[in-house]
Every structure is written in C-alpha cells, then in structure tokens.
Design brief:
Elements (H helix, E strand, L loop, with lengths): L1 H6 L7 E2 L7 E5 L7 E3 L2 H11 L5 E5 L6 E9 L2 E14 L5 E7 L3 H13 L4 E8 L1
Antiparallel strand pairs: 1-4, 2-3, 2-4, 5-6, 5-8, 6-7
Length: 133
C-alpha cells in the first residue's frame, strides 16, 4: 500500500526496524488507537517495553505537516460516486489526532490522488483517507 500511495504522490512516512533518528511514531499494526510519538532513545525503550510489550507495532518517521486535509468517498466497483473533503483547523492531540474543528474545502490535487489510489485498488464501499499537504 505504501508503494501504491507513493506512486500517486502521497508523502508516505518511511517504515524502519529500529529508529535511526528522532522523533518517530510507534503505530499499532491494527487499529488507530495508541499512537505514540517518541523524541529520543529513552522514550522509545520505555514505550516498547511497557506500552507496546504485548501489542504488535511498527515504527515510522515523523512527518511534520502544516495542514491536514481529509477525503471521504463512496466507491462502487472502483468508481467514485460521491466525495467530501475538509481541512482540519484543530485536532486532538495537537501532534496528530482526530479533528475537533474543521471546514469543508476542495483541493483538486488531493481529490485526484485519493481517487487514483482507490480506483487502482478497485475499491468498493465507503472510504476516508487522511493526507497531509
């Protein structure tokens, strides 16, 4: 999925086995919860040994985005039927999380990237894709 997303222009964070620089993000293999931002080796070891001791996770580089946009759509057999986009004004936590304040918007480049990726996957159903711009 990372390779496909890169091909259509998404800024996809690098996945690493062990952190080679900080900050990094620890992400559970499944689900959205329990993201952990770590700023140094000590925080990484603490999170790995306590928070993620029994939870499979992977490590990604931290990408600092200026603005977050969201694309939601309904696809039928790989074809976009309807979509909605918004720009996040505020999120919780501030380092990256759910939008607590957003405004509807339109950005043709983001829409086209999301549409291309999902059409290539022959997506069927509802989707919500976040991207940093």
């Amino acid at each position: 999925m990372h390779d496909r997303a890169r091909k259509v222009g998404f800024n996809v964070p690098k996945i690493m086995d062990t952190p080679d620089c900080f900050p990094v993000v620890l992400r559970p293999v499944s689900g959205r919860g329990n993201l952990r931002f770590v700023n140094n080796k000590e925080e990484f070891e603490e999170a790995k040994n306590f928070l993620f001791r029994k939870i499979p996770f992977f490590i990604t580089e931290y990408i600092d985005g200026e603005e977050n946009y969201s694309f939601a759509g309904l696809f039928k057999e790989g074809k976009l039927k309807v979509f909605f986009m918004y720009r996040e004004i505020r999120e919780y936590p501030l380092t990256g999380g759910s939008a607590t304040y957003a405004v509807s918007t339109y950005d043709a480049e983001i829409k086209n990237r999301c549409q291309k990726l999902l059409e290539d996957l022959k997506w069927h159903g509802v989707v919500m894709k976040f991207t940093e711009y």
